[in-house]
Amino acid sequence: MRRHIAIALGVICLASLAAPIRSHGQTAAAGCDGIQIALSVGGAACIKPGSGQSFSDCPECPKLVVVPAGEFMMGAPDTEKDRLKGESPQRKVTIASPFAVGKFEVTFAEWEACVAGGGCTQNKSPNDRGWGKGTRPAIQISWNDAKQYAEWLSKKTGKTYRLLTEAEWEYAARAGTTTAYAWGDEVGENNANCRGCKSQWEGNQTAPAGSFKPNAFGLHDMHGNVSEWVEDCHGDYANAPSDGSAAPVTQGCTRVLRGGAWSINPKLMRAAVRLREVPDFRTIIIGFRVARSLSPAAK
Ligand SMILES: [Ca+2]
Fold first, then answer.
1. CATH of the domain at 117
2. How far is the CA of 232 from the centre of ligand 1 (A)?
3. 3-state per-residue secondary structure call for the chain
4. pLDDT at 16 over 80
5. What's the 28 CA to ligand 1 centre distance in angstroms?
6. I need a surface site. Which of 14, 32, 116, 161 has the fewest CB within 10 A?
7. What separation in Å is there between the alpha carbon of 274 and the centre of ligand 1?
8. Would 27 be classed as within a structural domain?
């Protein structure tokens, strides 16, 4: 017997997990036209990559969408206005398997669940500046703090939660586009939260997660709101990996931040922009989102 429960854009299929393994590493199940994802709470979600359908492993876990496998040109083309030195040379990057990505930046409510659950011991009460917590993205989060959250979530769910690699982040942010922003080459009006994005939060504070339209993969706030830590140490692109993996760890590594933020101008909110900071740095424009691996080997 199979029951379908509509959750947000997605459909959770409580079906048998006894299914053959597909060559790309996900399980297939009769009646599921996407990927059958075993959930921490039991049962499974049937999700079509790239559809924007979402699932989560537990009520307090982040909502996730599934990004499809594919390839893209990482970095800014020579013709891109406002391109910065570290954004080239462009190179083709292949993402071999679908993976799950937080639909939103990790929120204060999700952060507080981690603290209450005994994780996130390094940063038990990040200051919200009086803007409100709940569905606003957690701020004042260091790279080390973000790693502790992913570690707690992995332990809680038995699944592999982690930061996105830098290549995965740009692939997910572009969502098939080649323009400066996922919606085009101009920042436009009310497409995101930045200083110059013409939204109601205009350069003053964070917006509640999901206040703007999602990109083609169903992801919100990849551009703007809070700048997001990714896994990689910052390095130049000349010898960077082309398989979607993180750049090698270097001595004195600074970690990459992506997507710009509420107080940052549009030029630094482009999909190709790379900022960096030391891993224990916390500030009011920095947060993060998580990824979840989907291959059976990684749970
Ligand atoms: Ca963001």
1. 3.90.1580.10
2. 17
3. CCEEEEECCEEEEECCCCCCECCCCCECCCCCCCEEEECCCCCEEEECCCCCCEECCCCCCCCEEEECCEEEEECCCCCCCCCCHHHCCCEEEEECCCEEEECCCCEHHHHHHHHHCCCCCCCCCCCCCCCCCCCCECCCCCHHHHHHHHHHHHHHHCCCEECCCHHHHHHHHHCCCCCCECCECCCCCCCCCCCCCCCCCCCCCCCCCCCCCCCCCCCCCCCCCCEEEEEEECCCHHHCCCCCCCCCCCCCCCEEEECCCCCCCHHHHCCCCEEEECCCCCCCCEECCCEECCCHHHC
4. no
5. 32
6. 116
7. 13
8. no
Looking at the structure of the chain, the number of domains it has is 1
pLDDT at residue 42, as a whole number: 87
What's the whole-number mean pLDDT along residues 86-108?
97
Residue 24's pLDDT is 42
Q: From ligand 1's centre to the CA of 106, what distance in Å? A: 10
pLDDT for 5 equals 33
Q: pLDDT tens across 190-246, in order?
A: 999 999 999 999 889 999 999 999 999 999 999 999 999 999 999 999 989 999 999
Question: Is residue 282's pLDDT more than 80?
Answer: yes
Q: Ligand 1 is a single-atom ion; what residues have CB below 5 A from it?
A: 221, 225, 259
For residue 44, being part of any structural domain is answered with no
Domain membership of residue 67 (yes or no) is no
Distance 194 CA to ligand 1 centre (A): 10
pTM of the model: 0.90
Give the residue, 44 or 298, on which the prediction is more confident: 44
Q: Tell me the residue range of the domain where 191 lies.
A: 1-7+74-97+106-299
Q: What is the pLDDT of residue 84?
A: 96
Q: How far is the CA of 62 from the centre of ligand 1 (A)?
A: 15
How far, in Å, from the CA of 229 to the mean position of ligand 1? 9
